Predict the 3D structure of the following.
Amino acid sequence: MAAVPELDPAGVAALGTRIAENVARAVKVPDEPLRDVLVALVAEGHVLIEDNPGVGKTALARAIARSTDAEYARIQCTADLLPADVVGTNVFNQREARFEFRPGPVFANVVLVDEINRASPKTQSGLLECMQERHVTVDVHTHDLARPFLVIATQNPIEYEGTYPLPEAQLDRFMVRVALGYPSAEDEADMLSDHAGGDRVLDLEPVATVSEILAAQLAAAEVHASEPLRRYVVALLESTRSDPRTELGASPRAGLMLLKAAKALAALQGRDHALPDDVQALAPAVLTHRLLLAPDAARTHRRDVIADALERVPAL
């Protein structure tokens, strides 16, 4: 890999704009979900896209990979998928009379895990170490994953037959959960015209390199987060924990994810410091899937809990 260049926040903002504009050439994605995906990329997080079939989830992952000149791999989850199919396995080399490691698709830079809830819990757990530790262990040997490393997992929210709901520990590994929704009538008509000649994602040219993504990640990590801002994040977490509608509020890891995401958003907007506005903008995408509602709050949506916390807790 080439040497990692240095980027200031202005450079990160320009990089994010180039990627967003390039992705938009091939995929009609609302601004907010695309922003959240770019935030996860810059903040070294992962993305869970939960939406109906055919709205562009796979195309978005492919477009991100092509725009950043990153290695891309797709894992189509089924009930018979094994952990070894994801992380790789040791294969005996008869010519050299030894075992050698054959890496699985998770060793790419951008990994699409399609319909993750169709994989068995055993296979889902195989992703835990990858997503959290950035390496895999096979037969006591540890293998580092590629950098940057972004998992974009999808799941269908309306069809649960033959699926395995993600446990809380697995959901907590995703920095953001987003939904793309259906495009506007105008965008959908344009899409029909644009794709009449073939797959527009294949026509995309890279507008960034993996080295630039790594530089953006380093720059985002250096964005300043003040003590009052950190206390504001903690106050939001405590508000979700004390809410009578929740059985399980946001964890300390959720706070770490929210602060990292806020710093990444600040960098993508060209700032060297994070603001409460960054936290407020990303709180729904970062915190919602980390809440567990109380049994008697079945009619409450988790987004309502986050919205009420943002309204109650004053920005310091």
Remarks:
- The CA atoms of residues 73 and 111 lie 5 Å apart.
- The chain has two domains: 9-216, 223-312.
- The mean pLDDT is 90.
